[in-house]
Amino acid sequence: MPDLKLGRLPKVGVVRMTIILPEPLKEELDQYAAEHSRLYEPVDTAALIPHMLEVFVRSDRGWRSRKAKAGRARQRGTSSSQQHGTERRRTRWLRPKRS
Fold first, then answer.
1. Is the pLDDT of residue 60 over 80?
2. Which of 21, 23, 85, 84 is nearest to 53 (CA)?
3. What is residue 8's three-state secondary structure?
4. Cα-based distances in Å from 27 to 5, 22, 31, 41, 77
5. Distance, CA of 9 to CA of 52 (rounded, Å)
6. Is 93's pLDDT higher than 80?
7. What tens digit of pLDDT does each residue of 71-90 get?
8. What is the C-alpha to C-alpha distance for residues 1 and 36, in angstroms, rounded to an integer?
9. How far from chain centre, in Å, is Cα 20?
10. Phi-psi region of 18 (alpha: psi -120 to 50; beta: other; left: phi over 0)
């Protein structure tokens, strides 16, 4: 049987948050936690959620792209809004003058 996408859980520091879930999602998370526990080691549903969110965020190409752009802008000492403002001004200067 194939492994789950989540895999084994690393040991890390935590911050407490409270979330509200629809009942069907909670039930599915409980089922996922049961299968994860069967394959790896016993784990509570709530312990899986942060790791699932991390996998989701890391697999989001749009987020990674925006995060990388923001990091490059920060390294150059400009915010992304400053960078975009500069690009707009440059573009305006390149437009032909109207007669």
1. yes
2. 21
3. coil
4. 19, 9, 6, 20, 47
5. 10
6. no
7. 888 888 865 555 555 544 44
8. 12
9. 19
10. beta
